Amino acid sequence: MQKTLNEIEQQVGGKLSGGVADVHLLVDGVSTDTRKMKENQLYIPLQGERFDGHDFLQAAADQGAAAALWAKELPAHSPIPLIQVEDTLVALQDLAAAWRRELGVKLVAVTGSNGKTTTKDLISAVLGVRYQVHRTHGNLNNHIGLPLTLLSMPTGTEVAVVEMGMSRAGEIARLSEIATPDTAVITNIGEAHLEFFGSREAIADAKLEIREGLSPDGVLFVDGDEPLLQERLAAEERKVVRVGFAPGNDDIAQELELKGTEGIAFRSSAAGTRFELGMMGRHNTVNALLAIQVGRHYGLVEKEIQTGLNRVERSGMRLETAIASNGMTVVNDAYNASPTAVRATIDLLVSLEDFREKWVLLGDILELGDQEEALHREVGRYAAEQGVTRLFTLGERARWIADAAGETEGTLAVTHFSTVEEAARHLDQDGDSSVVLLVKGSRGARLERVVDHLTKGEKRR
């Protein structure tokens, strides 16, 4: 983003304090963190429960900030020009919305309980074959991250692909109003954040808030196998494209081939073409279909779409595979977890035919509210019933997984660990090249620490 202070003042409804010459001062980008501040950026001090960015004005100036937004009483002396606003967060969001309008890009917004980051990556790779694409990086998908993603769009961007996350009702609506997408994608409805919503039905309603900012002629792409979405979209006036495995979808995955750690292959009924994807798991078929249909919507032909699928750059800790020092294959899917996602990755694990031993290490699944024990136990029973060779758990809540699996009839060996070090030591001693280990847990469980111990940080793909 490049704007003069006068333009910023008008777009955020603020008041510039400083000399007349400051009106025409050009700002190049924004930052909310003085530790990452670049010269000539606009500093936007945010306030939280334990911090106040206004306290770091001098640090921002020392790092080369050109100016700052300000939501407190003006200081007697400021090292840089200030634009006074009522709320710096709202001003950040307003500035992002203005920059999005100014560039006039096509915008694809992606949300869902699981798979939204992978689907965002797939769509970005596909559209990037023909267009200049800007996408969400890292976890910048909330009320702060989305505006920062929009404001980092360079001139020349043709399509933006942004991710929208939430933990409360109303949050997706606000993000959609800021981004005003032309195309919206909902990957699925799971149990993530169940603690704050109480039911999957409420989660579905919250995800569908993405329609709030969707243009009147916009198109919605969804998982057509999810009944909660179909019920709520039955009377939708905008075009809805449904994908999945079930008959009746607009694009149906056919002739699915699970190729182990090499990925998947399937036929798209709508395109009449067979596609290959270097990502493991049946669940990634629907994510790929969403990317294929968004690509077709934006005019790409099948050859271009396959080229994009071949180029996809996955975000970290999403089915990353590596070889441990003992020869064991480790599949790191530890970025986050919900019961639905855990079951999908267990299905993936048992489908891998190149390994004699199929082990899974599961951590706590967070934000499940008063259903957390029951849902953890369901996961344990599922692991026991699906043919996993050994189940390992780590974490206070994960013990419920171990207990339920141990109570389920069968031959599954179950071990619960108390510490990361204990888990890593045990797995390192027992594993060998005949073993594939899947690692899955919520972000708060930080199971990647076990992976790092086993692999010494080495990633294969």
Automatic annotation (TrEMBL):
GO BP, sorted A to Z: cell division; cell wall organization; peptidoglycan biosynthetic process; regulation of cell shape
Domain of life of the native organism: Bacteria
EC number(s) from the headed UniProt entry: 6.3.2.10
Keyword ATP-binding found: yes
Gene Ontology MF annotations: ATP binding; UDP-N-acetylmuramoyl-tripeptide-D-alanyl-D-alanine ligase activity; UDP-N-acetylmuramoylalanyl-D-glutamyl-2,6-diaminopimelate-D-alanyl-D-alanine ligase activity
All copies of domain Mur ligase central, residue ranges: 110-294
Pathway: Cell wall biogenesis; peptidoglycan biosynthesis
Database matches in PANTHER family: UDP-N-ACETYLMURAMOYL-TRIPEPTIDE--D-ALANYL-D-ALANINE LIGASE (PTHR43024)
Function per UniProt: Involved in cell wall formation. Catalyzes the final step in the synthesis of UDP-N-acetylmuramoyl-pentapeptide, the precursor of murein.
Name the record gives this protein: UDP-N-acetylmuramoyl-tripeptide--D-alanyl-D-alanine ligase
Species whose genome carries this gene: Melghirimyces thermohalophilus
